[in-house]
């Protein structure tokens, strides 16, 4: 590599700035990140990199070989490292610095997927994509963490494989690189961590605003999901389901709580003295019977049912309602009811079914059980008829629905939870 | 796992809540040193501390014990309440609040909000702190009841590995804040309230947002009460000169992430120069050293220019763009110049000096 003259230095700076302008034009909502990237030319790396203080290093010769349009794609690539917090996420995994190359590849594959979905040009440059990592067992759409552990696993099993070096700088985690400016460099100030958080929040708001005003299609899906996760985090369905079951238990039975409506066992102690302390009693009625209606029609996958049942098992375990649970498989007719007598039974449940769905049959079967269940938990994709009214003996119904489109058609008396099971 | 920076921010947010008498709940798995940190803060600030385990208490331990004497029932306060009412600036720390049954949580409401236990007033100078294990980690956990959850600032508490490492060798790291003087505090609180009312006037829909699921209702969500807590905490944070990360955590802990981000952005923007003033006196424009701020100023200037376009205003924006360009940010200047040139009023010609500083970039980006 030849030594840059001041002309190439000047020209290369112009080229990167031009690339930033093009990048800003493509995704205006990333403006604050793109323009926060401080430019530093260096010969010590072959292409581009960003450090954890959001300073962008570039090789002048390399950038001059790239048209501004292609370089803009690379700038967006670096900006996505910044907003995805790849550095902090790598640190939180507590993995050795040597494994950082794998992390960088996984992050790159994810970022480039987003860029490819918008058809941004790469020119002659060959970016890392999910397909590039196919030999390691990485599949399209894996999260950066999952892809990373998949690659790590592959190299543990095949230590002889040649490692490819790949690095975007300390923005994606790991130690400070040799070419990076010191953390408190006055002439090239770093963007501090808390400032980065504020900028990220701002970008997420811009994305959501853009989405509200211009509708879907105006923002790439991955960016929209990122912004929603940051500002409107969705609580995991497992947590929501556990909360709903707990609330049903509390509502239907007043489970294990203090009441003043019954005398305390210890009330007698001070009954004879002049001043009497009124103590509450504890009330914990027998746990209510619960029925789980499982939609076994063709449209619900067995693996989804298994994941769901595993979750239910741990919920009932932690709530101490191990007995009095029945599982009713149901397609267009209700199948044979399975009584759960011990929790280990959950794992051995085999459900058969297929064809059409009418969960009203499942509710009918539940009402014939003795004792009649007070809580009904339903697992379905929602393509079914529902009973018009909640049968009087049932106190609460929780419907776990796997199809978002059916969520609004669930009966009013029920509590609906959207379940997304990743397979 | 949390980083040291995040831990420091959580720690300082906790101290601020204690100092500002805002009830605070620490969320975290068991064994994160929550109790020892609070003992330490109490000692540092020279304050009396009472520690109570809510999960092994009954409702009357917080609501007072009904005693019938001569046909009248009096509500007798527990001893810890008496002690707190007798000292100045006490701290009440209630551990494991969410493993307490609902009726105990209900009794805690009065203690947290009114600082009253039984018929005993703990005094407004008392700070209330609670700790909770996330329901999925607690053996017998409940979601916090929404009315109780809404009275707290929620802080996630997790010890970074390096803090544990140093702590085991006898050096538990701690952080402190400098207490503000009274006049500075009062003016910060007034300024913060003004900012907040401006914000809520522009986003009235964020005044009250009740989340749908019971799990979300057990954490921070916006209500007039939690916004008031935001005003107090954020005012204190300004008066104590604390980092932006502390403000972010404190606001987020009161109203949740979405509304918090909007408020903080709004707050940052009102600190920026008024775009109309800048257009009037473009030569006074001092370029901030944070690039994201320069961007926001530029965008707001373009917005007000579009609203009221005159030749004079257009020229004046040209001067501002030129200043941005010559301060080493020609790329940022071009972004605005692009729109600015498009909006050119009839008969206007861009200033030569400006074009000279922008042309190389405009050419490079193939915009001309």
Give a verbal description of the structure:
Chain A is of the alpha/beta class. Helix content of chain A is about 40%, strand content about 15%. Chain A contains 12 helices and 12 strands. In chain A, the strands form 3 sheets. Chain A has a 6-stranded mixed β-sheet with strand order 9-8-7-10-11-12, sandwiched between helices. Chain A starts with 5 loop residues before the first helix and ends in a 5-residue tail after the last strand. The mean pLDDT of chain A is about 85. By secondary structure, chain B is an alpha/beta fold. In chain B, the strands form 3 sheets. Chain B has a 5-stranded parallel β-sheet. In chain B, strands 3-4 form a two-stranded antiparallel sheet. In chain B, a hairpin with a 2-residue loop joins strand 3 and strand 4. In chain B, helix 8 packs across helix 10, helix 14 packs parallel to helix 16 and helix 15 crosses helix 17. Chain B is elongated, with a radius of gyration of 27 Å. The model of chain B has no long low-confidence stretch (mean pLDDT about 85). At the A-B interface, helix 1, helix 2, helix 5, helix 8 and helix 10 of A face strand 3, helix 5, helix 9, helix 11 and helix 12 of B. Strand 5 of chain A pairs antiparallel with strand 3 of chain B.
